[in-house]
Design goal:
Blueprint lengths: L1 H32 L9 H15 L6 H8 L2 H17 L8 H10 L2 H6 L2 H4 L13 H18 L12 H31 L2 H29 L5 H4 L1 H6 L2 H13 L5 H36 L4 H30 L4 H14 L6 H16 L3 E6 L9 E4 L7 E7 L2 E8 L10 H20 L27
Antiparallel strand pairs: 1-2, 1-4, 3-4
Helix pairs in contact: 1-2, 1-4, 2-3, 2-13, 4-5, 5-8, 8-9, 9-10, 10-13, 14-15, 16-17, 16-18, 17-18
Length: 476
């Protein structure tokens, strides 16, 4: 598992870094060539997409949303490189083949980045899935992108916009209008999720919602001015290119401030070690300079012994500095997240497992799990009463359980912990499942070692029916 995760991260970050390097190279090339066009304004936003997409995709085993964000800039990059290729021929007089074919490709290749960056991407925030009833946003964006690309692809080389026939112009403008409608639909879906979401979901979505509103307004502006006022196409799209960076920036804010995608822990660890490295590096350089100056002052020459002593001092300072920085970062990133609360439950249980009342801990685990994850309901079934009513329950699990965790100890299966779906449509993350499994393992140990195990196998009086039907395991 660790090897697979490492391989995925290498691939993801290689793709992202390659995009960043190529986009920067394209920007430098256009400045050097004196070539100015509005699409260059999108380079910063496209780089942001690549970096934020890599951050998301490298942390989730099957999180398609991260790959969606990561690969969004690729069509635009192909277009930039094609334009650079043509500039080498036209501006710098470099003899290269296939000029007309490359020009034709570069002219329309960018449209998938434009057509999917807002509509198809934001309708999938934050869990990577399209909410029920909003699939039409995808079809609007796909149809609009196809028409936009087809209209631009019909332009003959050379000629530029002058080669656009009335039929091709109608197709192009229809595509632009459909993409704008898709962006409006995606904004509406985001507003709906914000209104019906819980507090955590609203905090995560508020910045993304604001950014989507800004970019959607820019898309609508482009469609209105290009179609109604016949504004030059590149100029009409200029605000959209600038606003495009709002989306990845808003996702980054949601990650850093409101635990979107559960990767704040990875970010906090990175901050710790980057900060410690910077502090110790500066300390090492400063002490070397100080000791050498003192050595020259008293002995008239530099001392290699001073370097060795400084190295030992810096090495000894690593642990206290690391702990100090770690405390600062933890204060910045700590919060009452669901998985963190469950880890606290587990730690408490593990420390007193031999003296705790298993009956009370079992009830506590169910109640805390339902509260922490804002689940519709939860229930604990003990193995001896597998087909009876639950030992303890809270809330109602409608239909199938969203999560089923085994409660076991060694090779002995003692029961099952079931949780319903989370309110607001949020999925249980990998970190959430790890916390639940650890809590269930602590309960299993408590049940196995408790001297009064016999009395906890009877159904608790408070238990009530929690399932509308039979619960089926979706996670174990």
């Amino acid at each position: 598992m660790e090897k697979r995760l490492f391989t995925r991260r290498v691939i993801v970050w290689s793709i992202a870094i390659a995009q960043v390097i190529l986009f920067i190279e394209c920007g430098v090339f256009y400045v050097w060539s004196g070539d100015r066009f509005a699409a260059e304004l999108a380079i910063a936003g496209l780089i942001s997409f690549a970096l934020v997409g890599a951050l998301i995709a490298s942390q989730q085993a099957n999180f398609r949303f991260g790959w969606f964000v990561l690969l969004t800039p690729v069509p635009a990059l192909v277009s930039f490189l094609a334009t650079q290729y043509v500039d080498l021929i036209e501006v710098h007089r470099v003899a290269l083949p296939f000029e007309s074919s490359v020009w034709w490709l570069g002219n329309w290749a960018w449209t998938p980045s434009f057509g999917t960056a807002i509509g198809m991407l934001t309708v999938r925030v934050p869990d990577g899935r399209v909410p029920r009833g909003w699939r039409f946003v995808d079809w609007l964006c796909i149809a609009g992108t196809a028409l936009l690309a087809g209209g631009i692809a019909s332009i003959q080389f050379p000629g530029g916009s002058e080669g656009l026939t009335p039929t091709a112009a109608a197709v192009l403008y229809a595509g632009l209008a459909l993409i704008a409608m898709g962006a409006v639909g995606a904004l509406a879906s985001l507003i709906s999720r914000y209104r019906h979401g819980d507090r955590d979901l609203r905090l995560q979505l508020k910045w993304i919602l604001l950014a989507t509103a800004v970019v959607t307004a820019a898309f609508v502006y482009a469609a209105v001015f290009a179609i109604a006022f016949k504004t030059e196409f590149d100029l009409a799209l200029a605000p959209s290119y600038v606003a495009l960076s709002c989306i990845p920036i808003s996702i980054g804010i949601a990650i850093l401030r409101h635990r979107l995608f559960d990767i704040d822990v990875i970010i906090s660890r990175s901050l710790v070690y980057v900060t410690v490295t910077g502090i110790l590096g500066g300390l090492f350089i400063g002490l070397i300079e100080l000791t050498q100056q003192l050595s020259i002052l008293y002995t008239g020459q530099k001392s290699e012994t001073a370097i060795v002593i400084t190295a030992f001092l810096v090495a000894g300072a690593f642990t206290p500095v690391q702990k100090w920085v770690d405390e600062i970062v933890e204060r910045r990133f700590k919060g009452a997240d669901a998985a963190g609360r469950l880890h606290l439950v587990s730690s408490t249980a593990e420390s007193v497992v031999r003296v705790i009342d298993p009956h009370r801990f079992a009830q506590w685990l169910v109640d805390e799990s339902v509260t922490a994850f804002e689940a519709e309901g939860g229930a604990l079934y003990l193995e001896r009463h597998h087909h009876s009513r639950p030992f303890h329950s809270r809330g109602t699990i409608g239909g199938d359980a969203a999560v089923e965790i085994k409660v076991d100890h060694a090779d002995l299966e003692l029961g099952r912990l079931l949780l319903g779906r989370r309110r607001g449509g949020i999925d249980y993350s990998h970190r959430d499942l790890v916390a639940l499994k650890r809590s269930a393992a602590a309960l299993g140990e408590a049940l196995a070692v408790a001297t009064d195990f016999g009395h906890v196998t009877a159904p608790a009086p408070r238990a009530a029916a929690t399932n509308g039907g039979a619960a089926h395991a979706t996670t174990s």
